[in-house]
Amino acid sequence: MKALITGGSSGIGLEMARYLSEFGYDLYLVAREKNDLLKVKKELKTEVSIYPYDLSILDNCYKLYGELKDEKIDIVINNAGYGIFGDYKSNNLDKELNMIDLNVKCLHILTKLFVNNKSTKYIMNVASSAGLMRGGPLMSGYYGSKSYVCSYSLALYEELRRNNDRIHISVLCPGPVDTNFNKRANVKFNIKSLSAKYVAKYAIDKMFKNKLLIIPGFSVRLGVIFSRIIPTKLLLRITYRIQERKR
Q1: What is the pLDDT of residues 163-216, one digit of tens each?
Q2: 194-195 and 177-178 as β-strands: parallel, antiparallel, unpaired?
Q3: Which among 152, 147, 72 is positioned nearest to 112, based on CA atoms?
Q4: What's the burial of 83, exposed, middle or buried (CB within 10 Å: 0-12/13-18/19+)?
Q5: How many structural domains is the chain composed of?
Q6: What angle in degrees, to the nearest 10, is found between the helix axes of 11-22 and 34-43?
Q7: What is the 8-class DSSP label of residue 56?
Q8: Residue 220 domain boundaries
Q9: Which of 141, 62, 49 lies closest to 104 in space, CA to CA?
Q10: Is the CB of residue 179 less than 8 Å from the CB of residue 167?
């Protein structure tokens, strides 16, 4: 049994690697920093292959698939991603485009390639509860990228289901999680965050049960329901106030 995890050296990706290793999965882990990957490799009991690739460089996505297409990987978890916080006019455009390359284009490329791989049984795309909202002022690009991941994954699920395809698609939509995401986005959540370990275990367990939309945390699920029943302009005002407190 084999699993590929992008963003596998920290946060949710790391905890997923630990959990799958307990199940006996050999792992293919991708992250930017080789030293971080080496630390994970030493820790885990199963076989671990590391790939220190920056997947926001899209050529690396194709390179990664080229190296792994014959490895008979059962599970693909597209977890790599990050967010940018700040006023839209002042945010750096190059950084925003880099985020879109990683959050959207990389995930799309790897999903597209592995969905046609005969060995793939599960693909989990990591989005965010932000992807189920109708916009996120002060994190507009991030919310938009995760909306893409959600919409894309849900539609792909239905296409595969109708074709009686063997591959199951899941999309993970966590709320605040205690990871390095906060540091890179330069924000501080003002509500209690779930642990990465809890989210990883919850997500993997639900994936194995063929759950499509995975939302860890009761309060997060309530928030998603609430966001769907209030007027859009009111939701945007509320979201802006919540986001502003993260400064």
Answers
A1: 999 999 999 999 999 877 766 656 665 567 899 999 999 999 999 999 999 999
A2: parallel
A3: 152
A4: buried
A5: 1
A6: 30
A7: T
A8: 2-244
A9: 141
A10: no
